[in-house]
């Protein structure tokens, strides 16, 4: 557990995958969505995953079908190929993480969620650390997978990211239907937060549908660590979440930044 001050993380609402708006042709995890969030004064959450050549791109899904006219796994294409694939309903393409960082340039806080296949491959975490080691803006790294967070925690000094807060994204249960890639051992570890001694998160991001819950309550009220909650989709849901979390990760409406 770190005693670092993370007031900046919870100072303003966090736009889930940027401030996207399908009706206006602003697609999630696009540079346009990041710029829209900056213009509105929101922090930004984004998803990163490795391409075939080991670089990082900003894209949520394992496969390309939902957000593009292409098909197949994003991880099976290199960054150059992915950067030529248009995002549906827009003039933008899948951004390389380096381009996404350059567009934000430290103007608002950035929450980077590292996607994972839960296969203990730590190369993406190492690549993410390299990308962020020299980034000068406010940024945190989070993941559902305890393994890369534990790795970054243990190797932070060597990787040059000891100054970057690390967090866990979590929810109340990890059933087989929604999480088929998890071993039973990891399912138990994540459900009961048994990785805490290895990950020692600086903050927690918790499913709003699972509030209240003992884990975020103990993190926030017991350890005095900030808790964000996802994905909040209305003002009423935001008001309910306020009692159990320090800030919302939102989409589909415009929360007040005050």
Automatic annotation (TrEMBL):
GO annotation terms (biological process): lipid metabolic process
Domain called GP-PDE: residue spans: 11-258
GO molecular function: phosphoric diester hydrolase activity
Protein name per Swiss-Prot or TrEMBL: Glycerophosphodiester phosphodiesterase
Species of the source: Methylocystis parvus
Xref: SUPFAM superfamilies: PLC-like phosphodiesterases
Organism superkingdom: Bacteria
């Amino acid at each position: 557990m770190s005693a670092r001050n993370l007031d900046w993380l919870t100072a303003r609402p966090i736009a889930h995958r940027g401030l996207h708006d399908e009706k206006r042709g602003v697609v999630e995890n696009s540079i346009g969505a990041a710029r829209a969030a900056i213009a509105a004064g929101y922090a930004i959450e984004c998803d990163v995953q490795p391409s075939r050549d080991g670089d990082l791109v900003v894209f949520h899904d394992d496969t390309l079908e939902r957000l593009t006219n292409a098909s197949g796994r994003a991880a099976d294409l290199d960054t150059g190929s992915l950067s030529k694939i248009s995002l549906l309903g827009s003039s933008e393409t899948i951004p390389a993480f380096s381009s996404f960082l350059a567009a934000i340039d430290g103007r608002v806080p950035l929450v980077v969620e590292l996607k994972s296949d839960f296969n203990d491959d730590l190369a993406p975490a190492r690549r993410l650390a390299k990308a962020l080691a020299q980034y000068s803006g406010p940024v945190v790294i989070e993941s559902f997978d305890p393994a890369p967070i534990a790795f970054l925690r243990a190797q932070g000094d060597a990787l040059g990211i000891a100054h970057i807060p690390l967090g866990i994204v979590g929810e109340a249960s990890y059933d087989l239907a929604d999480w088929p890639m998890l071993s039973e051992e990891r399912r138990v570890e994540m459900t009961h937060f048994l990785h805490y001694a290895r990950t020692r998160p600086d903050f927690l991001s918790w499913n709003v549908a699972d509030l209240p819950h003992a884990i975020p309550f103990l993190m926030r009220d017991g350890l005095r660590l900030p808790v964000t909650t996802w994905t909040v989709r209305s003002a009423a849901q935001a008001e309910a979440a306020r009692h159990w979390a320090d800030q919302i990760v939102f989409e589909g409406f415009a929360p007040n930044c005050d």
